[in-house]
């Protein structure tokens, strides 16, 4: 039972709080006294912001994903060792050109006690696909005609043959939810996240902390942790102090300026995962000034990528040379190094020349939309100065992530900073979802730049029908070249999949660009 008080507080009932041993301090679980040789079983993680919702389909924001990974599960996961796939809630599957049949694992329980059935799977795929945070161009799947064959068999038909299905089902937000729970709560399911994962919600005080407890009815191998406590600490410097003094065990958001201190400390160490996220400056191509590719190219030439990397990121990381990272299959190296058309330093004269050719010799006024992420705030200041040097007068507008997202979804944002995550580890999940014209919609679409190019669309459409991944590479290379020339977005930083942790914390790993805590333990 959850209550919303005057301070916007969500909390479990008194009986549950007593059963869990309570909580003391501002979002900080009081560790139980341990005798000599006892192993610590509560992990405390610092996250810069609250997830704001626990409906796992409603957003692809990392603040939600890092919690949802431990609460909900997918049908399949990507096998990190050989890039194949392993069954999770699906024990096995049979795929043809017409569709895919999933055989559901028997005996799986949701946190509230219901048994997972094919009906829950069919419902989740159909309902989840209506959310922009999940449905990234799945136009080959006929969600309306999914068939429940029996209690443990689901058939998902295709509109046309496509070889990306398992990759997309393994993406980090295609979760399975309990149909009964949704029928009972609807959108309020955010307060009742009834998943099948190894952890379940115990306590949530919005803006302060969120606590998960181990689910004793979990079908898989039980976690060595009893609790995961997320503390929401907006100031990274404060989070690092907490890590060094033992107040938290892992900091999930690391600023570049902290890396050297972490690596030099005996009380902290860095963890690195695969980099699959690029931070971009995006332009709304339906907005008048950005309809002309010359204006978008001018913005790219105005950017000082070297200053962004060295000034804000302290040289930690690199400028993206394409629209997906080298960790993602299909990455094209054609623009690396000296072949990067816009150069590492700003080319003011070239930018002014292009603006004049496009009819804006005196520049124009524009607003840079960002959320409250400290890195984006710092980058926006650098970009504002870059743009003003070529006559583009930029104003920075920041807000919380929910408000920021709404401005992007609605098309209100004309120039904004946001990441693109190839969370399926396939190029399609980034290139198709963010720039294919079929995803330009008034609502529910994921092409927020409203970019449209027939040749780009054709290369991606053709790739979907090519069975072998390596045979699709030329199509993806051509698609990346079109984006580089037309620049609806321009990447400025390959986001580091990294966290800072206590040396005693083991088992940390990343999945699809986010940190997974359920497998952690202490030594």
Q: Compute the number of strand runs.
A: 22
C-alpha Rg (nearest Å) = 23 Å
Strand content: 15-25%
Task: Please identify the structural class as seen in this structure.
Answer: alpha+beta
Instruction: Give the termini separation.
Output: 35 Å
Oligomer: single chain
Secondary structure: helix percent:
25-40%
Mean pLDDT: 88
Model regions low in confidence, pLDDT < 50 over at least 5 residues:
1-34
Signal peptide: 1-29
Keywords: Signal, Transport
GO molecular function, one term: peptide transmembrane transporter activity
Organism: Enterocloster citroniae
Features:
523 residues, alpha+beta, seven-stranded mixed β-sheet, five-stranded mixed β-sheet, globular, disordered N terminus
Overview of this structure, please?
By secondary structure, the protein is an alpha+beta fold. The chain is 27% helix and 20% strand. It is built from 15 helices and 22 strands. The strands form six sheets. A seven-stranded mixed beta sheet has the order 8-9-10-1-11-18-12, with helices on both faces. A five-stranded mixed beta sheet has the order 15-14-16-13-17, sandwiched between helices. A hairpin with a 6-residue loop joins strand 2 and strand 3. Pfam families: SBP_bac_5. One of its GO terms (cellular component) is periplasmic space. This is Solute-binding protein family 5 domain-containing protein. InterPro entries: Peptide/Ni-bd, SBP_5, SBP_5_dom.
Chart the SSEs and their pairings.
Blueprint: H1 14-19, E1 42-47, H2 62-71, E2 76-78, E3 85-87, E4 90-95, E5 99-104, H3 118-128, E6 147-150, E7 153-157, H4 165-169, H5 179-185, E8 199-205, E9 209-214, E10 227-232, H6 236-245, E11 250-251, H7 259-264, E12 269-272, E13 277-283, H8 293-302, H9 305-312, H10 348-357, E14 365-370, H11 374-388, E15 393-398, H12 401-410, E16 415-421, H13 428-435, H14 454-464, H15 473-486, E17 489-495, E18 498-501, E19 505-506, E20 509-511, E21 514-516, E22 521-522
Parallel strand pairs: 1-10, 1-11, 14-15, 14-16
Antiparallel strand pairs: 2-3, 4-5, 5-7, 6-7, 8-9, 9-10, 11-18, 12-18, 13-16, 13-17, 19-22, 20-21
Helix pairs in contact: 8-10, 14-15
């Amino acid at each position: 039972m959850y209550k919303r008080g005057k301070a916007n507080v969500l909390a479990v009932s008194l009986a549950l709080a007593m059963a869990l041993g309570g909580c003391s301090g501002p979002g900080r679980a009081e560790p139980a006294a341990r005798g000599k040789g006892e192993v610590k079983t509560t992990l405390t993680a610092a996250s810069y912001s609250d997830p704001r919702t626990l409906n796992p389909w409603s957003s692809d924001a990392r603040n939600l994903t890092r919690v949802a990974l431990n609460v909900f599960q997918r049908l399949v996961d990507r096998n990190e060792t050989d890039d194949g796939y392993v069954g999770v809630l699906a024990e096995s599957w049979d795929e043809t050109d017409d569709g895919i049949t999933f055989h559901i694992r028997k005996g799986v329980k949701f946190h509230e006690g219901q048994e997972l059935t094919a009906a829950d799977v069919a419902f989740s795929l159909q309902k989840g696909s209506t959310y922009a945070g999940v449905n990234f161009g799945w136009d080959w799947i006929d969600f309306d005609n999914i068939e429940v064959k029996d209690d443990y068999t689901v058939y998902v038909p295709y509109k046309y043959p496509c070889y990306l299905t398992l990759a997309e089902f393994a993406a980090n937000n295609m979760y399975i939810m309990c149909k009964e729970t949704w029928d009972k709560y609807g959108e309020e399911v955010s307060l009742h996240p009834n998943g099948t994962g190894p952890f379940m919600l115990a306590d949530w005080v919005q803006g302060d902390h969120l606590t998960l407890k181990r689910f004793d009815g979990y079908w898989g191998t039980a976690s060595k942790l009893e609790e995961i406590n997320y503390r929401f600490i907006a100031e990274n410097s404060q989070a690092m102090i907490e890590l060094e003094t033992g107040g938290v065990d892992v900091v999930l958001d690391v600023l570049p300026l902290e890396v050297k201190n972490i690596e030099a400390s005996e009380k902290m160490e860095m963890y690195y995962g695969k980099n699959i996220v690029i931070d971009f400056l995006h332009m709304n191509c339906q907005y008048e000034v950005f309809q002309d590719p010359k204006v978008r190219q001018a913005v790219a030439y105005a950017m000082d990528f070297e200053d962004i990397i060295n000034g804000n990121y302290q040289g930690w990381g690199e400028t993206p040379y394409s629209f997906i990272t080298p960790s993602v299959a299909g990455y094209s190296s054609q623009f690396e190094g000296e072949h990067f058309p816009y150069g590492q330093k700003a080319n003011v004269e070239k930018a002014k020349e292009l603006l004049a050719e496009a009819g804006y010799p005196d520049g124009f006024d524009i607003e840079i939309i960002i959320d409250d992420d400290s890195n984006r705030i710092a980058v926006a200041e650098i970009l504002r100065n870059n743009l003003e040097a070529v006559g583009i007068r930029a104003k920075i507008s920041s807000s919380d992530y929910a408000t920021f997202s709404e401005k992007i979804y609605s098309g209100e944002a004309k120039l904004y900073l946001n990441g693109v995550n190839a969370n399926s580890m396939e190029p399609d999940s980034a290139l198709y979802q963010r720039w294919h014209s079929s995803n330009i919609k008034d609502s529910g679409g994921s092409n927020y730049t409203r970019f449209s190019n027939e040749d780009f669309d054709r290369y991606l459409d053709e790739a979907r029908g090519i069975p072998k991944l390596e045979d699709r590479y030329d199509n993806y290379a051509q698609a990346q070249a079109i984006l580089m020339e037309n620049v609806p977005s321009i990447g400025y930083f390959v986001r580091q999949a990294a966290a800072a942790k206590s040396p005693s914390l083991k088992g940390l790993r990343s999945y699809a660009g986010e940190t997974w805590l359920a497998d952690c333990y202490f030594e």
